[in-house]
Amino acid sequence: MKNPLEAFVGFHLVRTGNLGLKALNSSYGDLPVRHPDVAVAMVIHANPGITQSSIGKMLSIQRSNMVPIIARLEQRGWVERRAGKGKTIGLFISPDGEKVMPALQAASQSAEDFIAAKIGAEAFEQLRAILKKIS
Amino acid sequence: MKNPLEAFVGFHLVRTGNLGLKALNSSYGDLPVRHPDVAVAMVIHANPGITQSSIGKMLSIQRSNMVPIIARLEQRGWVERRAGKGKTIGLFISPDGEKVMPALQAASQSAEDFIAAKIGAEAFEQLRAILKKIS
DNA sequence: TATTGTTATACTCTATAACTATA
DNA sequence: TATAGTTATAGAGTATAACAATA
Fold first, then answer.
1. Does B71 contact A at CB distance below 8 Å?
2. A95 touches chain B (CB under 8 A)
3. What is the spatial distance between Cα A55 and Cα A52, in angstroms, rounded to a whole number?
């Protein structure tokens, strides 16, 4: 049976995007997070005091869709909000958040390993370089 | 501002997958289709008489999620169903479907061009080769 | 028992519009 | 005006369970 979609990068991107999604979310195991939560936590961790809007721009997440993500992270006590200029709110990883960050990093890394094992180390590195070019 | 996710292929895949999704769906313009419809139509076109289940396996779409896709294609008169062995139903592109296939192909190709323009022809070909390796 | 088609449903993620508050 | 945060809502896509029909 022929798969005519193999020639189309667009369709491939959609499918492999879903593969990445499943790899990431299954890697979290019992951790009560989804992949956007982890991504946002990592960005806050690397940029203490960053605002929701800035994170949204960095990760291509709409402002409105940032709200429930931050709310979850705050509710778990992993992220703190401190008033900034105007209506802005600075975001910081809390002490409890610092404790869980290594687990989040390790889980994300295991998803990386899963993908690398699936396509081979060489293709994996090429893929990383190209995707980096896109964003 | 640092973006720690640039190091993670998994997150990249999710984001670029969404990029591919938007590129594809916006390329269809006035055509009353979404990207799964086009993908399925292309597979039927390349494999006359194929069953829903086989398409689902090829494209990683659940059996249950194939139902509304086929229903839409049939309702538009682009796809015909003919009884096969047992409970199986063979799928075929109808004459009306044949007429619209070039437009679907062209639209999908324009999405390809959009992505290629975004990352450059060289990276695009590398990307195609690697993604082909995944599926 | 295994496969196919189907229905119903829940969940995740994204998109849009509109509102308030601040500069 | 422009930006930040928020609320509400709609839509697309995926996942799961359960059922009937056929081999």
1. no
2. no
3. 5
